[in-house]
Every structure is written in C-alpha cells, then in structure tokens.
Amino acid sequence: MVKLEELYEVDREGKEIALKFIDYSDRLAYYSARRFLHKLQDSVNELRKLLLMAYGYDTEVDDALYYLYTDFSAAIKLTDEKAIDCSIEGKSFRECDSTLKPPIEELNKTYEYTMEKLTGKRARCAWGIDSPVYNLSMAINDLTSCYHGLLEEYAKKKMDSIGIKAYAREDATDRAKEACKIWDKETEKARTYYLYRWQDYEALQCLALNDFAHIKVGDSPGHRTEVNLKEDKIVYYDTDEEVNLIMYKLLTETGLKCKVDLNEKVECTGFNKLPKDKRDKVLKILSYSTSMDFRVSGLINGLIRYTTPPYAEDWADAYRMYPGVRECFPEDGEKILDREFHDKKLRRMLDGICESKFSYFAQDACKIGIAMEACAVKKMIELEE
User: Fold this and answer.
1) Where are the domains of the chain?
2) Which pairing describes strands 265-269 and 212-216: parallel, antiparallel, or unpaired?
3) Is pLDDT of 271 > 90?
4) Sign of the C-alpha dihedral, residues 117, 118, 123, 128?
5) Would the CA dihedral through 162, 166, 169, 172 be positive or negative?
6) Helical packing angle, 59-89 and 27-54, nearest 10°
7) What does pTM read for this prediction?
C-alpha cells in the first residue's frame, strides 16, 4: 500500500510547479511538469482505491470515485498535451493560454458530486476557473487542488496496516482488528502452501471499520465476506454452489447457526457467543474460501482423469509439505465422502448439485472432490505454524 507521505509529496510537487515555473519556457521545466502530471495520474488512482477501502466499498462511493477518476484522467491528458504544444512553441507557462478550462470545469463539477457522496456536503476544488484568463500554471494548480481535497478526505479516514492484507480505520474496535489479524495470519499460511491463484491473492483485503470486518476474498466482483460484530452476523457472498455448500458445512460445524442460498450466500449468526477457539476457527475458515472454486474444480477433473492422489495440482504442495492433509486424498474417495457428508440434509444438497451439473459418470467425482476439499481445509486449519 502506498504511504500517505508519498501522496502528500505529489501534492507539494504540484503546488511548487504551478508557482515556481509560471514564467519558465525551457524544456526542462516542461519535462518536470509532464513528469508530475504522470505521477498525479497514478496517485489519483491510488487515492481512489484507498478511499474506496476507507468507505467500506460502498457502491455509490465506488461509482462517484470512478467518474471522478475518469474526469481527472481526461483533464490530466489534455494538460499534458497542451504542455507539449507550448514547449514546442517556446511559450512560458503563463503565456500558454490554455484551452483547458472546460475539462477542469467538468472535473470541478464531478468533484462536488463526489464530495457530497463522501461527506454529505458539496465542495469545489478548482478556483482558477473563475478567472477570465486561464493558463497552464492555473490548470496545474487546479488539478493539484482537486487532488489535495481528496487527499485530505482520505487522511481523515486513514487506514493503518495491521497485517499483510489487513487494514484498520481509526474508529475500528479491538475485536474488529483482531478478526482481520486472525484471518490475515491464516491467509498467509494458505499462501505458503500455494492454495491461492495469484489474481485472487492480489485482491485479498480485510478492512476493520468500526465494529465490522469487511473481507474481500477474491478478484470476482461481489466476492466478499461481511463480519458484523455489532449485529453478531456473518455473511459470505458467492455464486458458486459447491463453494457455498462447503462454507455452509464448515461454518455450521463450528457452532454457528447458518442458512444457505446456494446461488448467492451463506448467512450465519451466533459468532459472539462462541468460545475464542471457535471464533478463531470461523475466521480461519473464511480465509480458505479464496480460490476454493478452482481447487474444487481441479479435484473433480483430477478424479475423473487420474487415479493417484492428490488428484489436483492445487493441493499438490500441501500434500507434499504437510502429511496431515494426505488422509483427505485416499485412493478410495468414498471413505471421505461418507465421513464428511454423513448428515442427510447435507448429502441431499451435495447430490442435488452434482446431479444437476455433471453427467452420471462424473457425479461421483463431483461428490468426492467436494468432500476432499472440505476435509483438507479442516486439516489445514489444524496445522499450527
């Protein structure tokens, strides 16, 4: 994560260029300005992502920040192109009579709308556009001013790093931070056994916000978990039936009271009433939802094609490095199936999924693969490092 000090350095550089170079016409000055504009583009994008995190991935905030970033990008691009033209013509920044007022005006309007979504109050950022004369220095100053306003808003809601993939807002409770830390530690353990696809791992985040832990568990839109400690509710969102069934099974086994919509989510209550070791287990289970769809698919396909464990390459490293997990991949997979899905309700759900998705000859592979995944996740959680 980019540091707040680095973002402020870009802010300081923009103000300095706008003022210091106003009467400069040499190519070095224009090079410095263009380099700053490229940095500003990257910094605005970083700030957009940080603000989205700080506001808990609110949909309206996400949309507003996206539109603002789009207008920022357009204004920066046009400013950069104008700088190239004026550099070639040998004009100073003051003489570079800019045609940039319209895109900066549009940026200012979008900024006002975005700030209303973030704070409930409209606020402008570009003041140079009120001047009848507008030049390159004023455009750079207005761009920096809009960036500064966003930066100040983020500083108010700054997220502190509390782990590799875990962050906490200033208002986060101790138990929300602890939830993220436990999830984060188990996530790193799973990563060392190569159980994640890299794109899923890159997307992982746990944000502690007030009495709430928001966990992004993969790179797919909406693939997330909400741990609402205040309301004593956990909701895991996924559209994969196999994964939702496994998560429902594992979370229920901890003592949580859960209900499942196989096409949408698993919703559980009773987390706060569990003893600490069970609460920790719940959070660890959540870390294994990441890339579970790939692991299950790999197991099913592997069981169809091969006869030797671990059947899927996703589990190959854990199988080799951790003897405890090997019992989940016997040559006779029916043993694991009967052990993991002895509950009649769970077995009916499992049968329904596999019979609706696979041909008759592949249905057993589907059932055994799902059972193996559930077994292996429990064994990984038992492993202390």
Assistant:
1) 4-157, 161-385
2) unpaired
3) yes
4) negative
5) negative
6) 180
7) 0.69
